[in-house]
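Quick one, T. Sequence first:
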Amino acid sequence: MPAPPLGSAGLFGPAARIRRGMEILATAPRPPAGLTPSQVVFSQGRVDLRYYAPPARNTRLPVVLVPSLINRAYILDLEPGRSLAGALAAAGFPTFVVDWGVPRLADAGEDLDHVVSVLRRSVDRACRHVGAPRAHLLGYCMGGTLATLLAARFPGRVASLLALNAPASFAAGGRFASFVRAIDVDTAFPGDGLVPVEVMKPAFQLLDPVGNVSKHLAIEAASHEPTKLARVLVRERWLEENVPLPAPFARDFIRDGYQRDALLLGEWRVHGRPAAVRAIRVPTLVVACKHDFITPPAAALPLADAVVGARAEVLDVGHIGVVVGAEGPRRFYPLATEFFRSVAA
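Structure tokens:
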């Protein structure tokens, strides 16, 4: 790596370090991700259900992990030692990840009802694959909202629900809510089509205006240790690989979530009937993070008040760090494992 040019603050000043971080980010190859052994056991269109077999199964019920649709599912299996899927499998749980894949033009007409149907079918296949009557659901971010809708509307296969950084009280959704609340979704996302990454990515970048500066400084700081640099770059790979959304799904999610705040009101309709969150009767754990500006605690925690007997935990970490940062294996993975083990089969 060539030495950076001198900046106004000197060779090792912030300006030079930022430039060097930018150069590394632009030129360094991205490490591989999703290395925990798995197999696809069910597919529907672009969606795959991946199975992570435990080395020694010590529980009857599987765990189905539900990520967001706007990023790649391998955030749940990012790298060795920072893999939620791998950690749950190692703890003895038959573990499945719903990999939403990348929408194509053939998928451009999919709405929220379709997505929930695919999720329902995936949970059913996970149960059938391991011979279990029900499954634990762990939904992350948007995936947590979808898992909640499934538990409310189609509870038959659901043993428990863990909602991680999942929007529930959308009125408290912070910066992102302020961006989308006033959008005319029918004009912005008309008909059947794909909402391109180029439309969504700038909105997320605006959530953290100084994020690029701190990111490039962090890359430069990590560049002196290959292991640390690989860890930073594999996370950047995931952040770079946004995927488009089918326009009907985007309209449904923004209108019913961020504009109507319909989830906690019990007015979010799935397949023609309300998904009554207050009727959820399975053990529920709601996890929020203090430093989450995508789903602030004020947006996530009200779900625990709405579900009878639900627990709530707030971790001192951010939206992504809770899954793939140091606090993932230290705090969140054991918390999830303990919760699922506490649910009777």
